[in-house]
Amino acid sequence: MEFATVLSLLDATIRLSTPLLLACLAGLYSERSGVFDIGLEGKMLMAAFAAGAVAAVTGSAWAGLLAALIVSIMTASLQGAAAISLKGNQLIAGVAINMLAAGLTTFLGQQWFRQGGRTPQLSADGRFGTVELPFAPQIGQIPVVGPIYQELISGHYILVYVAFLAVPITAYVLYRTRFGLRLRAVGENPKAVDTAGISVNRLRYQAVLITGLLCGFAGAYFSIAQGSGFGNNMTAGKGFIALAALIFAKWKPVPAMFTCLLFGFLDALQIRLQGAELGGIEIPVQAIQALPYVLTVVLLAGFIGKAVGPKAGGVPYTKER
Amino acid sequence: MAAASAPADSWAIELEKINKRFGAVHANKDIDLKVRRGTIHGIVGENGAGKSTLMSILYGFYTADSGTIRVNGEVAHITDSRHALALGIGMVHQHFMLVDNFSVLENVVLGAEDSGFIKPSLDRARRELDQLEREYELEVDPDAIIEDISVGQQQRVEILKALYRGAETLILDEPTGVLTPKEADDLFRVLETLRAQGKTVILITHKLREIMAITDYVSVMRQGEMVDTLKTSETNPEQLAELMVGRRVLLRVEKGPANPGKTLLEVQNLTVADDMGVVRVKDVSFSVRAGEIVGIAGVSGNGQSELLEAITGMRDQKSGKVLLNGNEMHLRGDDGAARARAGGLAHVPEDRQRMGLVTQFAEWENSILGYHNSPEYGGALLDIAAVKKQAAERIATFDVRPANINLKSSLFSGGNQQKIVLAREMERNPDVLVVGQPTRGVDIGAIEFIHNQIIKMRDAGKAILLVSVELDEIRSLADRILVMFDGTIVGEADPATATEGELGLMMAGIANKEAAE
Description:
A: mainly alpha, B: 517 residues, alpha/beta, Rossmann fold, 2 domains, 6-stranded mixed sheet, 18 helices
């Protein structure tokens, strides 16, 4: 394969893994605190819709992003209230959020814009442009290293940089701060946290709100960065793949990044391979499209070993008498 | 109470007229308690007497409905555990409050961090821990992960946690329940050091031997009330037991001589591996005859659990034979336990909540578990009326309280849960009864009853194999003692003549080594 082809494949990998990574880190906060979150998908969808709708009306990508963050955090609060305060079943709370998001976004989209649930096509100002890193054209002249900088590292949407910066920040928060210590503890043994005089529920709410924030970024990426406008169910199960990545990464931030890059790479490869021939016969598109999912299953089933999640995950905390 | 005349400033803790209700249950009734600074103060009582509730109030886990708490003479309104810690009250819970995948250091720091970033706190904790460890001889590796260290060491971490937070008064809730005898001795040494350094220790336990061995004062609780506070040197176990139960209790088991008949249970060259594939029982042979109780003594974790599980068909043996009444039993496979029961071998497992009962089931449902296929229960369609009738009869015979067959099993106390299991296994009239830890976590009144039931079975000509980590229990019940160490039976002793010291040496594997040399 040519250098340029490899470069563009890796470039696509970064673009495709960004929403996965944001969602995966989002899930990490919630699940580390002991709240299982299968509602990542729903929160992203709500955020994507909010971003698309507001950006279409205001013509500003930043206003769209702000709307995405607010809506996603509000959705997360709703899910948190059900799963933490009301001690509901966390899986069902997540499923409910997903169903609510799928229905509500299409319904409101149709009511407001009358385009079959879609939001209007965005103008250039309505979406995020790509960011040129300093000296990209100049450094680009240097052989090998230059194109890597210019093509691969520079020239992405700002949310891509947000996602990859969130990895070291999450690792630092998790392992070096008081909040991180307590977060890891509350997902393992909430009673130990309670007896140490720390509020279990407050910690869990904090975690769930961070989850909402990151899902907001992920959702906005779909509709106002990668795409130009919201389309029905445009997150297409990425929230669940992010969840699989989180398990594969054993709930750790840096492995989460590599796992998301791997899944992103498989997706990019799938796109590149469409129309490829094997022994003179064209491989059916469907078979190639299924490749990332098949590999996901193989990876999860075959290589993960025993995935032990946060021990107290899935159980609402009740002070027993 | 003679101690009441002491100057007021020598009391670390004073509780006055403490009341606490949980719904209809009056868990603490007008409790008065004074704890003198620099002493070890024991609190005894049966399960459900209100000891833990009282201590949880002191530690701020619950708030009292009424009453006054004074700490060092000052009235304190303790609202949460953080407040209690600030007043110098630390607690070591019965179930440790540790995060299993954290290091010792992280556990100590959790909730007592100095700032938003944990590095400075961890460094300070490392220095202070080092000093505390030297001061109180509480050695633990600060970087060890909790799940990798022994239960005894985990308990030290709990104590260190409290001391790190500046605890002057330390409450320990049933601290020896999970410890081996050696670890318990170590703990007592630590408590004595704490006392010598001027700390106050409140020890909650139901083991009278521990009270006698280590405390200065002892308070007795019964059914939510404080019955009495005594100077330990002026009382004795019999008196304490009577105060606890409210009637005279025989601490010594009364039994006549054994009349051993023919061999009912025979184990030949049994070898068993654990879940990790490590061989835990090595070529063990012994037999139990009709009308005798054979006790297996040993420090927990020397293969007793695996031996029990193999004999009762819960765990596949690697090699060897188990003969019941002279016939070899085929115990391998998933239905091994069912075949053992069908063959006349009943089993009271070591861990009643995990293996003996489905705690979410009602009592009557648990009363037939393992025998639920018997024709008298109706086969595939259960004859529920018959099952319930039988359950009600058994609950009466075994004096299970409350006598309600429809109550969820988790709502019975430990002693009553054990009686439910015993009733199920004994009333089938099996030839052989295998019992593991019959009185673990069981209160005194129930212990007496359970011991008497076991002896009654022996006198009815049954063979009984008893495994217990309580040496006293083995010594008082068994007719022959086998000592297990590192997967082998290292010796046999006659309970009438063997001393505790001799048995202790065998349990530590020392007698065996000398014999080999």
